[in-house]
Amino acid sequence: MRFTIQQIAQSLGAEAAGDLELTVTRASEPADATADALALAMSPKYAEELSAGNAEAAVVWPDADWRAMGLKAAIFAPRPRMAMAGVTVMMDAGQGEGQGIHPSAVVDPTARIGENVSIGPLCVIGANAVIGNGSVIGPHCVVGIDVKLGENAHLREMVSIGARATIGDRFRAQPGVRIGSDGFSFVTPEVSGVENARKSMGDSGDAKAQSWMRIHSIGAVEIGDDVEIGANSTIDNGTIRNTVIGSGTKLDNLVHVGHNSRVGQDCLLCGQVGLSGSVEIGNNTVLGGQVGVADNLFLGAGVIAAGATKILSNVPDGRVMMGYPAVKMETHTEIYKAQRRLPRILRDVDALKKAVSKLTSSD
Amino acid sequence: MRFTIQQIAQSLGAEAAGDLELTVTRASEPADATADALALAMSPKYAEELSAGNAEAAVVWPDADWRAMGLKAAIFAPRPRMAMAGVTVMMDAGQGEGQGIHPSAVVDPTARIGENVSIGPLCVIGANAVIGNGSVIGPHCVVGIDVKLGENAHLREMVSIGARATIGDRFRAQPGVRIGSDGFSFVTPEVSGVENARKSMGDSGDAKAQSWMRIHSIGAVEIGDDVEIGANSTIDNGTIRNTVIGSGTKLDNLVHVGHNSRVGQDCLLCGQVGLSGSVEIGNNTVLGGQVGVADNLFLGAGVIAAGATKILSNVPDGRVMMGYPAVKMETHTEIYKAQRRLPRILRDVDALKKAVSKLTSSD
Amino acid sequence: MRFTIQQIAQSLGAEAAGDLELTVTRASEPADATADALALAMSPKYAEELSAGNAEAAVVWPDADWRAMGLKAAIFAPRPRMAMAGVTVMMDAGQGEGQGIHPSAVVDPTARIGENVSIGPLCVIGANAVIGNGSVIGPHCVVGIDVKLGENAHLREMVSIGARATIGDRFRAQPGVRIGSDGFSFVTPEVSGVENARKSMGDSGDAKAQSWMRIHSIGAVEIGDDVEIGANSTIDNGTIRNTVIGSGTKLDNLVHVGHNSRVGQDCLLCGQVGLSGSVEIGNNTVLGGQVGVADNLFLGAGVIAAGATKILSNVPDGRVMMGYPAVKMETHTEIYKAQRRLPRILRDVDALKKAVSKLTSSD
């Protein structure tokens, strides 16, 4: 597809200058740009590459001297990543899904498929499932019985949604997402070593060896509007109530959300984050990659946890956390600096002991 | 389905009181209960919600004054989570799998399918695979050649089982489970930097850059009875011998079991646990979420590792572990408390140095 | 298949002795060997098992007295794991894939399928996809539009490759691999708490609650020759440029490679490693299991990171790293030893304070 600079600037709500009728078909990094590409160069650090390259049009920083860099047209981006959002959505060439229901799909006759829905090859749509208007279901997806999926969803290939999940509008699922797996919930007939160790903070007591009884998940998964879930992430069903993901929340790849957890609105859970069971998280909270949250904890709104933070106790609103176990980031930094000095302190303490011992004996 | 209070109490082996002929069709949290729901309120903390809600029947704590909370019938649960196991198995509405072999499934004519087996849409069953009586294979599963799967298995959608795996009875696999992926095993023609660094504890030496040769996995995966594996978890084939998961062991989501590892019986491996190659684990051991175990280690029976523990050396029977590197939980707590005091100690040591220096010079 | 000792020795480029016409059909551990098995006993520690077992032929250590252990033939392995590579590739019984295109596969008529390609049951091959000669595509794979897959690839079951990925020769993908998921890239209209916290190292400032705008991934994934990717691992598309995996690099299971990252040649990324966005890694670097790398970092060539290391800053060539945050392994060892001594140091400092206070007052 071909866009004029005018069209792109309008879509971004941005100022533009130069030949606004110039057209481009793709976006590129400044160094790789050809004449048909819009170079994305939203910072002065790209000035040299831009000058050296073949771009004729670019998105540039606000006061860029675009003519000096050999451009015929420029779009000015006050907030670079916002411009990135606008340009990439226009230029996305997509996955080539077809229209309508592919003949190889297995769709239960009781399923209610909305208008302008695309269902890819070899999908399975269960009994009484509802799929909202305009939704696109990629190849090899499984939508379980009694699932309600909203409008304008986009499922990539091999997504599975278990029975009775309810999902809002504009849902996006990357390949291999698992919604509605059973929760990991087991119990021993008598008190177990784990229960003892949790109570005593470290002593598993004299619990005998026992087998595990399964607690079934009779709750489901409930997802708001505008949620996106990354490749091969898993969201378990709740035990009795539902596991909940709030509207506007985004999960990265390989994230694990345990049963009964409730994640607020507009949160980000980065790659490989793990929430064990019954975690509650407020709105606008951001968990960095590989963060872990122990079970039954409350995290407030606007919490930020740096990558690899392991959260073992409740966190109030707005706190920035780091470490294992997680502490306030400034505390972590203080502890960490002290740790780096530790070997020297050991030597200091040894020297002090000698000096004091000498003083004491000579006293 | 509709159950009387009498039926449920009998199934739980629990005492009940009130109108035992009252019927319910589902279970719910106390606050959400309607007249057709059995409220699960196994602790006095639910008393208020129960009184305020519309439940007519509930599972309650042993000495609960159920009439005062407006109930017509009550079941008494001495061990709440055991009651949860009993109620949820009765109330589980399942995934709606059909009966028999779906016409879209691709079943090799040499596969031996037991009685009352359900094979979902678009499954692939390989040559000489054996599937035991009463097993339910969800949609989009792949069962490889020469696989032996026991009786009464329940595979959710999109489970894959590689060639020659042997699996006991009552196996449960959540969506996206991968059994029998090849092990991660490579070798360089000459000694590599990693080999040097492991020997010297930190020096990769002068190993030259080399490419990796593949060691194929000619072992398979061997799984006992009553095992459950969580969504998108992966279990690699062994190199020569089999990778083994003992009877009664349960794995959560996104768990990685490396080649040649042998996990004992009745263990729990929580979400995102990773076992590298050739790890051996005794019976009844519990690894919390995101625990990692380095290769070639032995963990005893009844070991408990708190969430995010990274185990870098062998662990004897019954030990409770925490930290990175893992230490006994009580040692971890002691070190951690000391760490929190570290910044103050630094100031103390500085003050001591000044004081002693003054004393020494005035000496 | 049946091999003579002669054939195996020749294939390994190794010396052999005894009855070179003896045949075996499989490899086994020394203790499990039967007369048709080649025992793999490349270290003197297996001497006893070998003598006790039923093996007639074995791969043994260089100066092994094979006749004394009851063997009729022996192959001598100077580098055991290299021998393992050679023997296992010969003995690998494979997954039983068929020849040609299975009739249940959905192959777009514009796809270009090479010679001697096997496409398994229920695969989906998109428009304009190219599959090189000799490639084997297991059951239930999805190859997207405009994908270029080289020669002699081997995809296990349920692998998905998103639109426009380009992949070299001899690619191997374990079950459930996801290539070409969209990157995790979002932006708020105004400055977010995360941006504030990163700048201030811990203060999220007064950023207001905002929703996330999506940055689409219009780049793809680019993979060199001889790459292998483990089960359920995920590799995201780049935002503008491609995400790149260099030739000869191997990824284990459940690894996450974020958008724009570029991994060099002949690297190993072990189980559950996570690379956030825009990470660059040199050649021959090895990251142990559960290692995490924060976004926009550079790791040099020949870097080694021990399991569970969390890398939060750039790492120069050849460095061996450990810890969270990652430091040089020898620094980590020093800090760790000091930490273990911490509780004692606390007591020492308290004693010193008392002693000095006494000295000062008596001064």
UniProtKB/TrEMBL annotation, chains A, B, C:
Q: Which GO terms describe its molecular function?
A: N-acyltransferase activity; UDP-3-O-[(3R)-3-hydroxyacyl]-glucosamine N-acyltransferase activity
Give the reaction(s) catalysed. a UDP-3-O-[(3R)-3-hydroxyacyl]-alpha-D-glucosamine + a (3R)-hydroxyacyl-[ACP] = a UDP-2-N,3-O-bis[(3R)-3-hydroxyacyl]-alpha-D-glucosamine + holo-[ACP] + H(+)
Keyword field contains Lipoprotein: no
Listed under GO biological process in this entry are: lipid A biosynthetic process
Record-linked CDD domains: LbH_LpxD
Record Gene3D superfamilies:
Hexapeptide repeat proteins, MurE/MurF, N-terminal domain
Keyword check for Metal-binding: no
Task: Name the residues annotated as catalytic in the UniProt entry.
Answer: H259 (proton acceptor)
Keywords, A to Z?
A: Acyltransferase, Lipid A biosynthesis, Lipid biosynthesis, Lipid metabolism, Repeat, Transferase
The subunit field of the Swiss-Prot or TrEMBL record says:
Homotrimer.
- State the similarity comment: Belongs to the transferase hexapeptide repeat family. LpxD subfamily.
Q: What is this protein called?
A: UDP-3-O-acylglucosamine N-acyltransferase
UniProt source species: Falsiruegeria mediterranea M17
